Amino acid sequence: MINKLLHGEWIHRILNPAVSEIQLHAKLQQARQNMPMPVFWLLGKTQSGKSSVIQALTGSSRAEIGQGFRACTRQSAVYDFPNEDSAFLRFLDTKGLGEADYDPSEDMAWCRSQAHLLMVVVKAMDHELDGVLSATRTIRAVHPEWPVLVIQTCLHEGYPSKASNHPQPYPFAEDRLDMRCPADLARSISVQRQHFKALGAQFVAVDLTRVEDGYQPVHYGLEALWEAIEAALPLGLRHMLLQNRLQSGQLNDVYAQHAYPHVMGYAVSAGLLAMTPVPAAGMPLVIALQGKMFHSIASIYGLSLTKRSVYEVVSAVGVGGIGIGFGARELAKLIPGWGSLISGLSTAAITYALGMTLCFYYAQTQQGHAFSAKMLKTVYQEQLQCGRELLKARFTQNPGS
Ligand SMILES: Nc1nc2c(ncn2[C@@H]2O[C@H](COP(=O)(O)OP(=O)(O)OP(=O)(O)O)[C@@H](O)[C@H]2O)c(=O)[nH]1
Ligand SMILES: [Mg+2]
């Protein structure tokens, strides 16, 4: 009986949230103070390849990145991925570096407790590095705790001829520029690394080309870039970002691919809300956020969110779905600290699984395929498992710590 009531209430609240957008936004801000969103600060001259790095890491298109940036200081802009509402990763792009006497203090003030990884982007053959070096030095002096990753781009500009393809296997691993690396390029890369070494930097060399450039692979060195990021900041971001390109089978349609990072973002936010000590208000907030996620998925599929669709998905999942969330919250009271992490991860995984199940539901509906409640339940169970795996690192490592 209680289960049935809870169930009905859940469906009702998804469609009619008990909290306003403003309240939800305020609570999320509060939750993020305890567990801040990871921020990558991209520092580099104009045209050094900053947007290309974002593109390669997130899979966003140039247009999406261009539209997604909003100014945050006089010289910098911020890009929340996948968007402001469902962001789980933030990029800061410093525009002013091309100009003489760039003073990073305003950007630093804005970043204060925000940046977690300083990515210095330089073209591999560029030797006018004074501006970038001095900005890095200033930032480093104030924030020695931020890891510095120097990303050396546009490698092919140092290849002996236009016809040369990328050297394989990848010869640019730190301090081991081997014989396959073209001589001019190797020299240039080493000189750059010497300059930044005193600043405690790590290095990675990439060539993030466009398909029409004709190089293979298009994103050369991306693997090494991810390894360097994960080593500096072990938050599991690589899996959280790449899963959308690895989804197979029934969740492989373009809409699901597009919805995936949004689902991930809402899942992280729901987990954060569940972890924040806001007595009694926790669950309505989480459900309001799930409601927002449902609306967002529906609009990606170009379908409207009907009571029926919510009912079918939530019914198939069963009260067991939210039961885990409630159970974990109870547990959280018994085991302070640990409990809230379990609760955060559980709520995030449940939200993730719900979102992906709704994607499956819409994909099947759209393609006119028959499906049963049992199938929905199976998808949910699989995605719950998957969500737990994907989000585990995010909820056990705090970028702020
Ligand atoms: N081949 C190759 N081209 C690159 C690489 N990085 C950037 N480019 C190209 O260089 C140009 C500038 O790259 P962006 O990523 O837009 O550089 P940016 O630093 O964001 O530039 P601004 O936003 O203007 O400051 C584009 O035409 C890219 O396609 C790279 O690693 N290899
Ligand atoms: Mg750019």
From TrEMBL:
Q: Where does the record place it?
A: Membrane
Q: Which InterPro entries match?
A: DUF697, GTP-bd, P-loop_NTPase
How the protein sits in the membrane? Multi-pass membrane protein
The answer to whether the entry has keyword Transmembrane is: yes
Organism of this sequence: Methylomonas subterranea
Keyword Transmembrane in the entry? The reply is: yes
The record lists the lineage as: Bacteria, Pseudomonadati, Pseudomonadota, Gammaproteobacteria, Methylococcales
Give the source's domain of life in one word: Bacteria
Q: What is the name of this protein?
A: DUF697 domain-containing protein
Q: Where is the G domain?
A: 42-128
Give a single Pfam family match: DUF697
Predominant cellular place of this UniProt entry's protein:
membrane
Q: What residue range is the signal peptide?
A: none
Which UniProt key words apply to this protein? Membrane, Transmembrane, Transmembrane helix
Membrane spanning residue stretches: 263-289, 310-328, 340-363
